[in-house]
Amino acid sequence: PATLEFVGELSEATASEIDWAVVNSHESQSQWAKMSPQERGRILKECCKKLSNFQDELAYLLTLESGKPL
Length: 70
What we know:
This protein has 3 helices and no strands. By secondary structure, it is mainly alpha-helical. The longest helix has 20 residues, at about 15-35. The chain is flat.
């Protein structure tokens, strides 16, 4: 953030982990493209429901990340 305050920690990925993620993302995209719009919509709605469980935490982290005051 703008204040240089420590907010959190991330782990680094190895080259093989990145390669694995890229291959799997391509495979997932192929499967996603084959789904009907209704099925994709159902999945996205479910993701929104799950994310809403963390609404306050996400808002807090995004605010810190942008450097804006709370």
